[in-house]
Specification:
heterodimer, A: about 425 residues, mainly alpha, 2 domains, two-stranded antiparallel ribbon, 23 helices, 2 strands, B: about 160 residues, 7 helices
């Protein structure tokens, strides 16, 4: 009888209810909000749903799926052995490194810890980029290389926000380190994989809030962008019709990924994992000889990685990291990053409108904040409101795909300076 | 400027930014607070911001130049190819015209029928077929095409295409 009572007591003590804190409870409720956004509102559901579920799993006490202490060098430092020979004896000395002890992760980690290795080691985001590359047609960009400028201008939001996050420190209510400021700023790149890649390298403790903010705002592009676009342009500018894009030959499309890889990787080597793999995917597609590989990269591989990425990024949102005023600041700064990026793109579009002799519609500038192809569709839609016979979609795709390259380069710059 | 060079070069001396990043925080001040109280903090932030934007623009400007160059090259190649093709086509056309001129003129005259009765029948047939009376028949020519289909093959084609 006593054995039975002890067993029942052990079960009760080991159950999640005993370990449940109000913080866990709040986080679980928060994951419900994200479920609502994903399922009912369909905000980037392919990522939001896995993120929300990861958040739910990680906050269930005693489930032991994810251990945040394993991923902090302060609580799980790596001690590198050094072998010193003293006569016939060998003395082993251990020096503390700033990196993680991955051996301990493998010994003590749960399911989500194992999957999180792919985020931490920077594997998943490039593989997603491989699929994106295999799906993207850079034709509009090759036909009109000036679009690159718009893709660069829209990255202004990133650097403005970096400055903004640092300025926020002055008020004394926030304290963001330089690395954290860089990670928050990349939300302005409007590119999920890039944001996750950079954050996992610079400030992994902020991965949860940053990913949630980035994907939410990407889903909200059709709401955030039009008012800014309309405020900064005149009716006459919005009505500008752009000429037909020239046809791009297959050879050009094959040369493009190779040339971009070489040029970008030579100047900012830290952008190579993202840009290089993006272009690899694109070369497979454009070469037309790797049909099966392209198919896998676009579909199965990308879907598998999206599941792993979403659920593990959600898992990093443990209560002690997520429930802090920092999360609110991140959400506010992310919105600023998006708005400033859009504005920078439209303003450069206006400048090009003037220089080109009113041939370029400034509305395509806002598509420079990647978020492919949503941002390009917004340009098309706003343009069509002013002039229903206007088709800006293909013209906006140029800055749009240039924005992907631009934000990967910006991430590379931040990584090389702050990493 | 010195700070800028420091940032860009990978000198043996740790740069200002390396120093900023090396703070680990203590009981009194967090990492961010230590960084912000560094005298070079705002200079570094400014330089990271400015160099960031400049490098992004620089790289994309290089890409623009490269692809603009490639585009012009390809356009030029396309044009010269087209010219060659056009020249070849023109030569062929000329040959064809010459042949046509050389061909006997008699045949052409024979082709044009001038039979009032036949024209009336044909225009009636067309009018019945198209339900349209607003047309004029300018000329009627005997079909001098290749050998007509045999009755069998014609029947086969009718059989196969009837549903359409």
């Amino acid at each position: 009888m006593e054995i039975f009572a002890n067993t029942v007591k052990g079960l009760i003590d080991g159950s999640g209810f005993m370990g449940l804190t109000w913080q866990n409870g709040l986080m679980i409720l928060l994951s419900f909000v994200l479920f609502y956004l994903a399922i009912k509102k369909q905000y980037e559901p392919l990522l939001m749903l896995p993120i929300a579920f990861g958040m739910l799993l990680t906050n269930l006490p005693n489930a032991e799926l994810y251990h945040s202490y394993l991923w902090d060098p302060a609580t799980n430092p790596y001690f590198a052995p050094e072998y010193i020979e003293q006569g016939s004896n060998v003395i082993v000395e251990f020096t503390k490194h700033t990196s993680l002890d991955y051996g301990r992760v493998l010994h003590e980690g749960g399911l989500l810890d194992m999957l999180y290795l792919g985020v931490k080691l920077g594997i998943y985001p490039p593989i997603i980029f491989l699929g994106i590359g295999a799906m993207t047609d850079f034709g509009p960009l090759i036909a009109n290389p000036k679009s690159f400028l718009l893709g660069a201008a829209a990255q202004g939001g990133i650097f403005f926000t970096f400055l903004g996050a640092c300025l926020l420190n002055l008020t004394g209510i926030a304290d963001f380190t330089l690395k954290e400021a860089g990670s928050i700023a990349i939300i302005g790149g409007a590119d999920g994989p890039t944001a996750i890649y950079l954050t996992s390298k610079l400030a992994p403790q902020l991965l949860g809030p940053i990913a949630v903010a980035a994907y939410s705002y990407m889903a909200l592009v059709p709401v955030i962008q039009p008012p800014i676009m309309k405020a900064l342009t005149t009716e006459k500018e919005r009505q500008v019709k752009m000429g037909q894009l020239r046809e791009v030959s297959k050879l050009e499309k094959v040369v493009f990924p190779i040339a971009v890889t070489i040029i970008v990787s030579l100047i900012v080597p830290s952008a190579a994992p993202l840009v290089g793999v993006l272009m690899f995917g694109n070369l497979m597609k454009e070469s037309g000889v790797c049909g099966r590989l392209v198919n896998t990269a676009q579909n199965e591989l990308m879907n598998i990685i999206t599941i792993f990425l979403g659920i593990t990024v959600g898992a990093t949102a443990v209560a002690e990291n997520f429930l802090s005023p920092k999360t609110l600041f991140i959400i506010a700064l992310g919105l600023i990053a998006f708005c400033v990026g859009t504005a920078c793109g439209v303003l450069l579009g206006k400048l090009m409108y003037i220089i080109s002799g009113k041939k370029i519609n400034p509305l395509i500038g806002s598509a420079g904040v990647s978020a492919v192809p949503m941002a390009a569709r917004v340009s098309q839609k706003v343009g069509a409101q002013s002039n229903p016979s206007n088709f800006l979609l293909m013209h906006a795709m140029g800055p749009n795909v240039a924005g992907v390259i631009g934000s990967a380069v910006a991430a590379g710059v931040l990584l090389s300076v702050l990493g | 400027m010195n700070l800028f060079l420091n940032l860009m070069s990978e000198s043996a001396e740790p740069s200002v930014i390396d120093r900023l990043l090396s703070y680990t925080g203590d009981a009194e001040k967090s990492v961010a607070q230590q960084q912000i109280s560094d005298p070079d903090y705002w200079g570094s932030v400014g330089i990271i911001t400015v160099t960031g934007i400049l490098v992004v623009f620089l790289i994309l400007a290089i890409l623009i130049f490269f692809f603009w160059l490639m585009g012009t090259l390809f356009k030029a190649v396309d044009k010269s190819k087209k010219k060659k093709q056009e020249a070849a086509a023109a030569a062929k056309a000329q040959e064809a015209v010459q042949k046509a001129v050389e061909a006997p003129v008699v045949e052409e005259a024979a082709e044009v029928e001038d039979d009032g009765e036949l024209i009336a029948v044909i225009s009636a047939a067309i009018a019945a077929y198209t339900d349209d009376e607003g047309f004029t028949i300018k000329s009627v020519r005997k079909h001098e095409g290749k050998r007509a289909r045999s009755a069998w093959s014609a029947a086969g084609i009718t059989e196969n295409t009837r549903p359409f």
